[in-house]
Amino acid sequence: MSDISDIKWVCKAFHELTIPELYSILKVRNEVFVVEQNCPYQDCDDKDFKAFHLIALRGADIVAYSRLLPPGVSYEHAASIGRVLTSGRARHLGLGKELMRRSLNSVYKNFGSKEVVISAQTYLIPFYESFGFVKEGTIYQEDNIDHIRMRKPFSGMSSQ
Predict the structure, then answer these.
(1) How far is C-alpha 64 from the chain's CA centre?
(2) Residue 159: inside a domain, yes or no?
(3) What's the CA gap between 57 and 35, in Å, rounded?
(4) pLDDT tens, 31-63?
(5) What average pLDDT score do residues 80-102 get?
(6) How far apart are CA 128 and CA 104, in angstroms?
(7) Number of domains the chain contains
(8) Domain range for 45
(9) Minimal CB count within 10 Å: which of 84, 108, 113, 152?
(10) d(CA 116, CA 158)
(11) 119: how many CB neighbours lie within 10 A of its CB?
(12) Phi and psi torsions of 3, nearest 5°
């Protein structure tokens, strides 16, 4: 893993984002989910307004990101973490685990949620299981990519 000491982590509610920050978030989400994964889909789904946005910055460049949703937005009684990504320019840095650890801690801090539910791309099942997520139900297609619902019961702050 390369040195990540120059990474700055920021977590903001939607109304706290500047216009350039919002533009950068939408740009990196498009780069990863629409262009890289060749998956045209409606990214702007009105959930961003209710979310906290966890951003990892290297200089002015977003290198990792996740969207944190309170209970009642995607899942009735559980918070959710979505739009989880590491920029192609930064995958060699090993930011994924730090991003998920910080995402979980931010969910607990901001929502006090007792559990977190995600819609995980199936190739990432082992990654999410390493954080205590458990598969629920069967595999389904979301935007032509195999996904599975996963749930993490509340166990306190993540030290992983």
Answers:
(1) 9
(2) no
(3) 21
(4) 887 777 777 777 788 899 999 999 999 988 999
(5) 89
(6) 11
(7) 1
(8) 7-153
(9) 108
(10) 12
(11) 15
(12) -65, 130
